[in-house]
Amino acid sequence: MHAVRRLAYLTFVHMHELSLRFHLERKTGGLTRVLERGRSGIETIVRMVILQLMPTIVEVALFDGRAAVAVRLALCRRHR
Fold first, then answer.
1. What is the CA radius of gyration of the chain?
2. How many domains, in total, are found in the chain?
3. Which pLDDT tens digit goes with each residue over 3-54?
4. Helical axes 28-48 vs 2-17, angle rounded to 10°
5. Structure confidence at residue 1 (pLDDT)
6. Domain range for residue 47?
7. Whole-structure pTM value
8. Distance from C-alpha of 10 to C-alpha of 14, rounded to nearest angstrom
9. How far is it between the farthest Cα atoms of the chain?
10. In angstroms, rounded to a whole number, what is the distance separating the alpha carbons of residues 26 and 37?
C-alpha cells in the first residue's frame, strides 16, 4: 500500500503546485473526486492481486513441486 500512498501524496503535491488561475478556471473539486476514485481503483487492484493472485501462484508452485517429486519417485522405482 506504500506505492498507493506515495501516488496519492505526489498527486496532492502536484495539485497544490498548480496556479490559482487553474483552480479558479476549473472545477478542482470534481478533479479531486476523479483522482480519489482513481486512487481507490488502484488500491482495489493491488489488494486483489495480493489477496487472490499471490495465494494462487503459491498453490500452483507447491502443486508443481509435489508433482515433480512424485514423477521423480515413479521414475526411480521404474528403473529398479
1. 25
2. 1
3. 778 888 888 888 888 888 877 777 767 777 888 888 888 889 888 888 888 8
4. 170
5. 62
6. 2-78
7. 0.46
8. 6
9. 84
10. 18
